[in-house]
Amino acid sequence: MPRPIKPKLVKETPKATLYKPRGIPAAQLEETLLRIEELEALRLVDLEGMYQEDAAQSMGISRQTLQRMVTEARSKLVEALYAGKALRIEGGTYILQEGSGKYRCGRCGQPVSGYGRRRRGWRCPTCD
Ligand SMILES: [Zn+2]
Description:
single chain
């Protein structure tokens, strides 16, 4: 059994998940895939202006992991913009934290209970 991937905590999901350059048919476009948790890392650091330490804490990950995600996400964004690729935002391994303090699996949307106690190696009982 593979070691479970530690899910990232995400508080906001994007309003739109696909961007494409104007005037190029979709079939001719290359796509860049940005994962939901990568966008969350960028949102916290670049939009909310959080320190990486605080953003990492918000997502329940180490600062090193957050820094790696921010670097990769920025690189993907710039590559998509520069090379005229479509940008798709989806997927990843994350848990959605709702305002009410409830958690949902980022893949299947099923409620997650006891997340705070079982952060390490959590797997979704429904879709994993
Ligand atoms: Zn699930």
